[in-house]
Amino acid sequence: MFFCTRFNHILMFDTIKLRLNREEVKGTDLLSEIPNYFEVTSESMFQTGPSVSGYIDNLKVTVNERGVKVGNGSLCKYYLGDNLQTIGRKDTQKAIEKISDTLHLPFDRAHVTRLDIAQNLILKHPLPVYFNHLGPAQYYTRFEQPDSVYYSNSKRRLVFYNKVKEIAAKREPVPELYRGRNALRFEMRLEKRLREQLKRPEVKASLLFDEKFYIELIDWWYNEYQNIQKINEMQTDLTKAKTKKDLYQIGLLALVEKEGGPAAIQKKIDEMFQSGLIDRFKKRDLKQAVKDALTVGTGQIESEAIKELDQKMKQAVRFYR
Question: Shortest CA distance to 143 belongs to which of 126, 158, 127, 128?
């Protein structure tokens, strides 16, 4: 499989959900016409009327009297055959055109209801090395799994995971470029209320290949990464203490290590607040003290892994800056 070098500098859209309302296709009998253009797998009857579902390749299609939904799958895999390659702005337009041609409908007019923005980063070390240096993020709850770290709130998720391992677990072929490599996938998943998140009256598929909008998404993706607190290497060496403040910082780092790391101590502070042991002001002060201790300074040295990851992220957005 051929990979162009510049693909490593293009962010892509991955999982997507599109909804084309019947108002956009007046004169088309959706239920009688559109199922002829995809592989039908089920037909159902609901209180709102009949519904027909099936697939075009990996994308699910659902048709009812109110409109047509397409998605719940990778747009990149649909267009390029796998989602380890990168599908940028122009190929996204071609992918939407392919959906439109297949279903004989103008899907550039469809509303986008779910969108993932992602990139694969090939790194030096095994991925848990990097996971251990990704700390808390404001407005998100952090979760850690054996092969991933993710941040979640009511609107979206930020996910870091081993993409090659996921592909191999599905028994799908791993492209040659990624075989035996440490490939970190970073996704920003916009799962709900896209109009509110993107501050737009509507988010239609045609917007995905608008260059200005595409750049705005790239910047947002990168800024969300930057807003995650990075954990540097801790060193509890008393010889580094020159002042009382230095000594306090080193002592706090020793406590952070004892409690199981930054995420564990942040969780304990949250539990103290929830139990009524501290108020919200003390909770804020304690978390800030931990954050200050984790910055590069006395008792901290810059993590080589984070330095590498920062550089890879900068490279990922450089193509459009």
Answer: 158
